Amino acid sequence: MAWIVLVVSGCMEAVWATALGKSDGFHRFGPTAVFVAGLLLSMAGLAYALRTLPIGTGYAVWVGIGAVLTVAYGMVFDGEAVSAAKLVLLAGIVGCVVGLKVLH
User: Fold this and answer.
1) Which of 6, 61, 82, 96 could cross-link with 49 by S-S, CB 3.0 to 4.6 Å?
2) Helix axis angle, 29-49 relative to 2-22, nearest 10°?
3) Which stretches of the chain score pLDDT less than 50?
4) pLDDT value at residue 34
């Protein structure tokens, strides 16, 4: 169960990170509300998962999921540059996250 919560929590990290960028310094209510909700859910899920998972593994997986999803969102919806090198590097992060799960 901790792994499922950790993955969902990593997804929520991408939500709050994306909303933070769209909040215009907390001047836009909608994105700011999404940021706060995403942050609370993400941190609560991480805290729950780290009750049973090692801190290093849990944190690395959480950050990796959040980072990959945030970059992917930016490339798909915000016009960030897409390149083969960027996709290979993102795949490397995904591979590392999967590797940490397999080794656990």
Assistant:
1) 6
2) 160
3) none
4) 98
CA distance linking residue 52 with residue 78, whole number of Å: 36
The 3 state secondary structure assigned to the chain is: CHHHHHHHHHHHHHHHHHHHHHCCCCCCHHHHHHHHHHHHHHHHHHHHHCCCCCHHHHHHHHHHHHHHHHHHHHHHHCCCCCCHHHHHHHHHHHHHHHHHHHHC
Please give the Cα distance from 35 to 26 (Å, whole number). 9
Q: Locate tokens 């509300």: which residue?
A: 33
What is the token pair recorded at 70?
Answer: 């945030």
State pTM to two decimals: 0.92
